[in-house]
Design goal:
2 copies of one chain form a homodimer.
Chain A: H1 9-33, E1 41-45, H2 51-64, E2 69-73, H3 82-87, E3 93-97, H4 103-106, H5 109-127, E4 134-138, H6 142-145, H7 151-159, E5 166-170, H8 176-181, E6 184-192
Parallel strand pairs in A: 1-5, 1-6, 2-3, 2-4, 4-5
């Protein structure tokens, strides 16, 4: 084995600087190439925690930029959540809880489907409204899993939205055609979850 | 092949109801078993979009429940983001931007390390403060990747926090010992990202 010379702090610092400068060159090039500005379609899918909360975090960011946002919730039916209590006071937000609750609570497919269709009518109104900069369609993906909505109709409505409008769709098992249509897709995988280890859903964390 | 009898809507509805009732039994049992109430440690890691925004979405939920929160940012150095503009007006939030910016921008490891150590001193003050219900340590994981902080010290400080305090840690490549210590871990995998397809980082979406 070849002997290696000891590396003093200055040399290590210079190497770090060289490596970071090369990284900066690559990243600056990528930033220069990413010049298109238009409304994006984000999909937060997967089995882990964070799909809806990431959408609400982006909404906070958008509101801080002076934008206007709307939320349509397709499954949840609680109106006493922390997120609603918090955002309700913000005049830039319109919030619609339009679900009937979890499918295992309603146990009524026809009622679930009717609720989803009403929710989509509300969503479509926002997809035609240029005043809305960000539209969150929370738990929309379940409407495809259970056959409550026609995916092609939804994709056509999304494609026809105002060019600068951003949309975030959340929910498990996003269908492939939705992923294909999206600009940014994150699969939020559950590595572990407190609930599975006997810890209750707590206010501030889960609702 | 055996002929199957046609299924009328009533039969399908009954089958759906039966299946959902069985699902409800399982889920109700799980909820009954998850009775522990204590502060949880969440880790949002992975290469995809949503790690920090999910933390801020949970914070909105916590604030809506009347809780108090603090944010310490370990890498980011921008103070003109939408999230800061939005949450700055909320008296329940303390926000500390303590990073020096991306490593490829500073190109100075000693400066990055000193900044991370100052940020950890701030974090530790909150980890000793029972008035803080939720502490967000944004992009903390990079401190381990680059050797700015000692992981065992950080884990010991986290373990000694008030029993009902929730903590959310974000950043890529969370070390295994941090994952082991956490209650809930989500790996946010990038399926696709608008930036990689030539779309600029836009206000309201990325900052």
């Amino acid at each position: 084995m070849a002997a290696t010379a000891p590396i003093d702090a200055d040399t290590a610092g210079t190497r770090h600087q060289d490596r970071m400068q090369r990284k900066k060159t690559v990243i600056d090039q990528r930033i220069a190439e990413a010049a298109a500005r238009r409304g994006v379609l984000l999909v937060n899918t997967g089995t882990g925690k964070g799909k809806s909360s990431a959408a609400f975090g982006v909404m906070a960011r958008a509101l801080g930029n002076g934008m206007h946002a709307a939320v349509v919730q397709f499954v949840k039916n609680r109106t006493d959540t922390g997120e609603i209590a918090f955002f309700r006071n913000c005049p830039q937000v319109s919030w619609h809880v339009m679900g009937e609750g979890f499918t295992w609570e309603t146990q009524d497919r026809a009622r679930d489907a009717a609720a989803a269709q009403s929710a989509w009518a509300q969503a479509r109104a926002y997809l035609n409204d240029t005043r809305i900069d960000l539209l969150i369609l929370d738990e929309l993906t379940y409407a495809f899993k259970y056959g409550w909505l026609d995916l092609d109709t939804v994709l056509a409505d999304l494609a026809a939205r105002p060019p600068m409008q951003h949309v975030i769709i959340t929910g498990r098992a996003a269908p492939q055609a939705l992923i294909d249509a999206a600009d940014t897709v994150t699969d939020m995988a559950m590595v572990k979850h407190a609930f599975r280890n006997g810890i209750a859903a707590m206010p501030g964390m889960e609702f």
